[in-house]
Amino acid sequence: MTVRTRFAPSPTGYLHIGGVRTALFNWLYARKHGGQFILRIDDTDQDRNQPEALQPILEGFKWLGLTWDEGAEVGGPCEPYYQSEKLPRYQEAVRQLLDKGLAYWDYARPEETKTEMELAEKEKRPKIYSRRWMAETAADRARFEAEGRTGSVKVKMPREGVCKFYDQVRKDIEVQWAGEQDIVIQRSDGTVTYNLANVVDDFDMKITHVIRAEEHLSNTPRQIFMLEGLGYPRPEYAHLPFVAEPGSKNKLSKRKIPQYLKNADFKKVYDHAKAIADRIGALAAPESFNPVLVDFYKQVGYFPAALLNYLVLVGWATEDNREAFTLAEMVREFSLERVVQNPASLDVKKLFAFQARHMQSLPVAEKIEQVLPFLVRAALVSDADAARAFVSRVVEAAGPRMTVAGDILDYDYLFLPDEQISFDPAIATKHLTAAFKGATVVPSLAEMLPKLRAAVASAEPFAHDTLKTATEALAQTEGAKAGPLSQVLRVAATGYEVGFSAYDTLAVLGRDRCLARLDRALKASV
RNA sequence: GGCCCUAUCGUCUAGUGGUCUAGGACGGAGCCCUCUCAAGGCUCAAACUCGGGUUCAAAUCCCGAUAGGGUCACCA
Q1: Is the pLDDT of residue A158 over 90?
Q2: Phi, psi of A328 (to 5 degrees)
Q3: A254 part of the active site
Q4: HSE value, Cβ hemisphere, 13 Å, CA-based, for A92
Q5: How far apart are CA A209 and CA A239, in angstroms?
Q6: Of A59, A33, A5, which is closest to residue A288 (Cα–Cα)?
Q7: Predicted-complex ipTM score
């Protein structure tokens, strides 16, 4: 039998990082066993369904490289893959359940149900419906309807016995049927709810393995009840530990960002990304700028491979506890048996570390392609093709300093026109003073800058080594330290105190731009 | 509250009865390197929730307590 797994997002928002983890495990399992991965859209709830929120979800999956064999956009033999298009099919299933006496029409008003449940909680009883407004005959239905009530259909759960099932992660599970609530499967407006649609779809789409987050564990008995009533085969189940909040075991929620920002690591990663976003300018979708959503990472230049590599380790590990996996290696190694049982909190700092590794191992040529779109969006580069050679020098000089593609914007001063460099004489003076530490007299900036300019101007070729030699020679004759002196050059040429090697920085700028900037600095310091 | 799940460094985890004075990674601290910032190298601190069993032997098996979490919708 071919393995078929699925992920079924609701188009109610952006792609959630916990959802991606679940989708990844489904994808890996299908790939590992030569099966199919299906992307179905759970849009049964019309009120909450936002059509415009579907596209970013699909794009997120495409960006990650989690391709689906059947489902949204691509179609397939089990169409439709949108639940909103299957209402008659679901209603037919409801009718079957009704005919077999496994479901019933119910006429309780929402507030009546609520009162019963509140009473049950108060009396510390299980919340089980009394079936007081259950209508089993046409006469009963007519009577309730005469009272002005509208009916919904509820599944009639057994009140004795146990439901046993095997879960690939949780192993043997046993629950008392008597504790299972009669849930609504068809609303009073005729639409159906998640549990029913889910069972029907999994059957229609021949899903063999239901791999989903642990919060669905408690849905499993009623789904088993329904699928057996409908005569469907039971799929294999695997309930994954859910992805928890940073530093806590609570379920991750995209609405709690302000709270997560109190976590120092989380804030660091957020701030780093925010700085990039600010340099790019207006974000396409500010509400998606949230480390709980994959769009966040996409926007600032994280790599799908790094994100996936981090995510596969949230709730899964190999025996040798290895960490680096390519997608192909994950497929080879993955198994449900090694899924961990306890919830794992999201550690964005660790994700960041994975990204750093991936960036470091990327060849320069590929880094350039990753980085160019960011330069274009920040309006630092207008012609990407023409800029390649220069960008290549910057990327090379930056070495292991870039972690995400957006980090290229840290070197904006190399792309900005000379007149936009803001030079601060006070900062340059600070470094100059350090260069003359121990000396009796510290020359003024106005005095030293021309000497530095002259030293640098004579470097031939205009490269790291010659610039270094020239600066050191000047330091020697002036009785200064070369190190801090190079910082003076950096500040004069870039306006910044940090960056890669000052000599490399000058070399990348080139003689002309360098001298022009030093001249401007000179003017500013007299 | 009922039902269910879970419990190893701050975090992700390895560990399935002796090889555990518990290993790795991220994060943290320190040192080295150094023109700044990174990167890199070396070193350090840091955990088996508790209590009972079973056993010659328990992080590992059993029971209980405790703690955390999930779920109990005409949401998915």
Answers
A1: yes
A2: -65, -40
A3: yes
A4: 7
A5: 11
A6: A59
A7: 0.95
